[in-house]
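A.,

Following up on our hallway conversation. Structure tokens first:
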């Protein structure tokens, strides 16, 4: 083998242990996260999203059209009545929505965050009182199609449970006695169900947390930890492909042929004095 080819061959042979070492350490560092991503992808693919979100257990009904004949209060009157009821002349109301809810035509008064601050009866102009625990339990049972009973109904103020993140506070948490362990979250102002949670959702959410590597809020996937792990995963994959190429059978056969002495050179060496 010419000297230059021999030096190149030896350099490549020295690189192999280094490449193997890098690949092993990269695999060790990122391997658990790759497993979490793979398991998460499997869980996501086999979990029907409507069951995860509790929609399959929710009672569905046809929308009730608005009965404008019974709406006598104006939006301005509804706002004034709400401000008088809470004794806040500057109660923030930036949007008024007229809805048909539980046999009534009502105004939902919303603040700048889109959260309801009051509900006013469109027929009488009466400000409807906030929901109590008994009412929250009844509405939760009416929303949940399977047979169940109320274990607890709690008005949560301040910091919300992780499974109710993103919802306005305060909020009612209603826990139902059922194998799916449903938790329903209702607005104390409107009585609407804001979130439906069950055991499948919690499993899905846990693997979503591992997937996006946001262990605090579970919603942010534009952060350095995830970006760094993704980069390491790419490097691990590339190093594995490179090692596979180096160990390819045709490359090993070619290297053996190039490193073995030629027949002519061997005979010449044997005949030399």
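Then the amino acids I'd put at each of the 273 positions:
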């Amino acid at each position: 083998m010419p000297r230059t080819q021999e030096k190149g061959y030896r350099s490549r042979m020295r690189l192999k242990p280094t490449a193997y070492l890098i690949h092993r350490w990269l695999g060790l560092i990122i391997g658990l996260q790759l497993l979490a991503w793979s398991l998460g992808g499997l869980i996501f693919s086999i979990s029907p999203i409507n069951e995860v979100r509790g929609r399959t257990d929710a009672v569905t009904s046809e929308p009730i059209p608005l009965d404008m004949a019974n709406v006598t209060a104006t939006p301005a009157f509804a706002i004034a009545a709400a401000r008088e009821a809470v004794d806040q002349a500057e109660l923030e109301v930036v949007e008024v929505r007229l809805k048909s809810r539980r046999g009534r035509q009502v105004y939902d008064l919303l603040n700048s965050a889109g959260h309801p601050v009051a509900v006013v009866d469109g027929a009488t102009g009466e400000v409807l009182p906030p929901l109590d625990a008994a009412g929250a339990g009844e509405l939760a049972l009416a929303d949940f199609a399977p047979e169940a009973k109320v274990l607890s109904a709690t008005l949560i103020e301040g910091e919300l449970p992780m499974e109710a993140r993103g919802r306005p506070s305060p909020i009612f948490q209603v826990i139902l006695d059922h194998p799916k362990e449903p938790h329903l979250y209702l607005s104390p102002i409107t009585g609407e169900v804001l979130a439906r949670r069950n055991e499948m959702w919690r499993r899905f959410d846990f693997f979503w947390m591992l997937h996006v590597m946001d262990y605090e809020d579970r919603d942010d996937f534009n952060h350095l930890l995830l970006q760094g792990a993704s980069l390491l995963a790419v490097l691990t994959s590339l190093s594995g492909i490179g090692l596979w190429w180096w160990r390819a059978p045709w490359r090993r056969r070619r290297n053996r042929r190039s490193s073995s002495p030629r027949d002519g050179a061997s005979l010449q060496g044997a005949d030399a004095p």
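The first strand starts at residue 95 and ends at 101. Curious whether your intuition agrees with the design.

B.
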